[in-house]
Amino acid sequence: xxxxxxxxxxxxxxxxxxxxxxxxxxxxxxxxxxxxxxxxxxxxxxxxxxxxxxxxxxxxxxxxxxxxxxxxxxxxxxxxxxxxxxxxxxxxxxxxxxxxxxxxxxxxxxxxxxxxxxxxxxxxxxxxxxxxxxxxxxxxxxxxxxxxxxxxxxxxxxxxxxxxxxxxxxxxxxxxxxxxxxxxxxxxxxxxxxxxxxxxxxxxxxxxxxxxxxxxxxxxxxxxxxxxxxxxxxxxxxxxxxxxxxxxxxxxxxxxxxxxxxxxxxxxxxxxxxxxxxxxxxxxxxxxxxxxxxxxxxxxxxxxxxxxxxxxxxxxxxxxxxxxxxxxxxxxxxxxxxxxxxxxxxxxxxxxxxxxxxxxxxxxxxxxxxxxxxxxxxxxxxxxxxxxxxxxxxxxxxxxxxxxxxxxxxxxxxxxxxxxxxxxxxxxxxxxxxxxxxxxxxxxx
Amino acid sequence: xxxxxxxxxxxxxxxxxxxxxxxxxxxxxxxxxxxxxxxxxxxxxxxxxxxxxxxxxxxxxxxxxxxxxxxxxxxxxxxxxxxxxxxxxxxxxxxxxxxxxxxxxxxxxxxxxxxxxxxxxxxxxxxxxxxxxxxxxxxxxxxxxxxxxxxxxxxxxxxxxxxxxxxxxxxxxxxxxxxxxxxxxxxxxxxxxxxxxxxxxxxxxxxxxxxxxxxxxxxxxxxxxxxxxxxxxxxxxxxxxxxxxxxxxxxxxxxxxxxxxxxxxxxxxxxxxxxxxxxxxxxxxxxxxxxxxxxxxxxxxxxxxxxxxxxxxxxxxxxxxxxxxxxxxxxxxxxxxxxxxxxxxxxxxxxxxxxxxxxxxxxxxxxxxxxxxx
Lengths: 445, 374
Ligand SMILES: [Zn+2]
What we know:
The structure holds 2 protein chains of 2 kinds. By secondary structure, chain A is an alpha/beta fold. In chain A, 28% of the residues lie in helices and 23% in strands. In chain A, strands 1, 2, 3, 4, 5, 6, 17, 18 and 19 form a 9-stranded mixed β-sheet that branches. In chain A, a hairpin with a 5-residue loop joins strand 3 and strand 4. In chain A, helix 2 (122-135) packs parallel to helix 3, helix 4 crosses helix 7 (228-244) and helix 7 runs parallel beside helix 8 (256-267). Chain A is globular, with a radius of gyration of 21 Å. By secondary structure, chain B is an alpha/beta fold. In chain B, strand 1, helix 2 and strand 2 form a beta-alpha-beta unit. In chain B, helix 1 packs across helix 5 (140-154) and helix 1 (19-36) crosses helix 12. Classes of the chains: A alpha/beta, B alpha/beta. At the A-B interface, helix 6 of A face helix 4 of B. The complex binds zinc ion (ZN). Zinc ion (ZN) is lined by residues 172-173, 199, 251-252 of chain A. Zinc ion binds at residues 172-173, 199, 251-252 of chain A.
C-alpha cells in the first residue's frame, strides 16, 4: 500500500493467528503506573496477555518485535480529527485519514461531525463506522453534532447517535453561539454521559478575522481574533456547566486566559477537561509572517506568552490531552490570498515528534506525555483504550524517541499536505503500530 | 542582462527597505519630475517593455498615475481591472498570475483588497511586482511620494516631527509611511481614537495620542488619513460627526504645529470630516504637489525595477519569496547604492532628446482621477 519501501502499512482485516512479543522496549503505561524495560505479550485474540521482565519471554513461534532502545506505549488516542468523509473526499477519506493516523502512532481517533452531510443522525454515524471497519487500520470513534446541521438551532438526536456509536457531541468548526442551546445540551447529555466538546469562539469578536490579534496582525495588515474571542466563551461554558451539569471538554485551548479559567474550574471540582493541539504549543503568531496560509487555523496561533501558558497547562494537568485538530485541506484552498485560505492544518503525523520536543524542553516527563496522548483522551471519551493493562485490546505504539528525520509535506500519508512543518527536522519516529494486536504500520529508522 | 538577474526585483513594501534605497528612488523621481515640465514628456527608457496594471480593487487615481508613469517611459501599459476580468468570474489569483505571466510582462503593478497579495504574486511569477496597495498592509509608492513631497518642502527628513492622524488600523498608507519615515530618521507621532490606534503600534517606536492637539504640538508635517464611512458600522466610532469633533484638523489645531508646517493627505478628501476646507485649501497644504510627485515617483520605481542594474543601483533585488521565515521580507534591497542616484538619472534625462512623440497628459489630470481606496 505504501510506495515507501522502508515503511509498511497493512490492511489486514484477518485476525493475527499467532501471538506477538514486543521485546526489551521501555514499556510506559501511565494508566497502570508502569515504566520498565519489559517484554509485552499479545495473545492470539489481540489482547494484552502479559508484561514480563525484559528478555524473559519465550518467543516460540510468536511474531517477534525487537523494541530494544525504543519506547512501547499505549497507542495514541487523537480525540480531535476531521476525516472529511462523507462529502469532502478530495481532502481526506476515512481510509486515508486512518492510514495517516497509524503512521503517526495513533491507534484510535475521534472524528468531528462537520462532514457533508453533517453527522447529526445515526445513519451518518453508522456510515462512518462501516467505512472505518473497511479501512481496517485505526479505531474510529465518531463524534455527533450538538445541533442539527451544525446550525446552532435545534438539538440533534443525541440518543439515536449514541446508540449508533458516538462517543461525544460537538459542533466543532463552529461554536454553539446560543447560550440557551448550550445549557440544554449540557443538561440533556447527562442521560448518556456524553461529553460536549466545545469549539470556543465568539462570532462577533472573531468576525472576518484570520489570525491572532496582536503585533503581527497589525504589521501584516490582517484582521485579528483577540484572545477574548476564545476566553469569553470558555468563561460562559464553565458557568453553564456549573449550573447545568454534564461534562464539558474545551477543544484546542490556545490562550493563557482560557487555560487559567479551566485551572480554576477544575480546582472547584467542575467536570471540565481540555485539550491542546501540537501547533499551539510549538508555533506562535510569528509563523504567519510572509502570509503563510499553512499557519492559518482556528483558534489562531497565539503570542509566545500564550504558548508558554499552554505548556504550563499540559505540565500541571490543567490541559488533559494532546489532540491534533487534524484538518486536511486541498492545495488550492491554501494556495491563495491569506484572507481567502481555509483554516486548519493536518496533524496526525507530526503529533509525536512535536510532543517529544516539549519533553526535551523539560515541560513534562515521558509518562505525562503518554498520558496526554493516550490515557487521558481515552478516559475523557470513555474508551476501553489508552492502557496496556492485561486483557485490554493490544493497541500499541513503538517509537524511537531520538530518531531524526525530515518531514516532507508531499510524502505525508494524509491526502492533504497542508502543514507548516514542511522540511522541518523532526526528532522521534513511530517504528511500529499495532491495533488490536495486528501490526498495521512499520517503519525502519 | 539576462532575465534571471531580474528575478526578485520587487517593491512589495517599505518594511526593511534601507535609507540608501529610499534615497535612490527619491533622487531618481526628483530628476524625472523635470520631464513632466517639458513639452515632450516622454523618455525611451522602457521602450519595448510591458507593464501590466492589475487593479483588483477600484482606484482610478493610482492606476492612472502608474499608467502615465509607464507611458512616459515608453513602456506598453496594459490595464486589467476587477470588473470585466476573469478574476471577477472566480478565477484564482494564482491562475490570473499565471495567465499574466504568459504575456511576459516586465512588471506587474498590483492593487488588491487583501493583505499579502503582492507578495503572493511575487512568489508565483518571475517579473517585477510593484505593490500598489494590498489590503491594510502596505502602499509603498504612496508613502514614497509623500516622503518625496516632505523632502522637497523641508529639504530633509532626518529629525522632522511627522504626525499621522486618523484610521491607522486599516491604513496601508500609514504603515508604509511609518517604515519609510522612521528609516529616514523622522520622529513619528500617531493620533486617532483607541479603536483605530491599537497599542501594538508602539512596536514601531512611535508616540501614540488620542488627543489631536497634543499630537500636532510642534509638528513639522501633518499627514491626514482618509476616514471611511464604513468604520462607523464596525463601531470604531459612533458617527462621522463625533469623529470630526475630535479629529478634524482645523486652523486652531494647526496653530499648535510649527509655523512652517505642511499638511499631506493621500486623497480624496472628506472635507469637514478629517480636515476642514480652510486647512485643505490653505497655505500649508501640499496635496497638489503630492499628486504631481506621484507620476515621477512611479516612473522612478518602474525604471529602477525594470532596467537591469539601472545605473547607480546595480544589484537591485529583493526579498525572500520562499516559505515564511519570520524575517522581514519586503521591499527593494539595493546591494550597491554607492553611485549617486543623480548620476543615474542624469543618464535617463539625457535620453529624453531621443524621445519621439510627445504625450501631453499633465499631472493635473491625475489629480482629479477619482476615488482612491487608500
Ligand atoms: Zn475547532
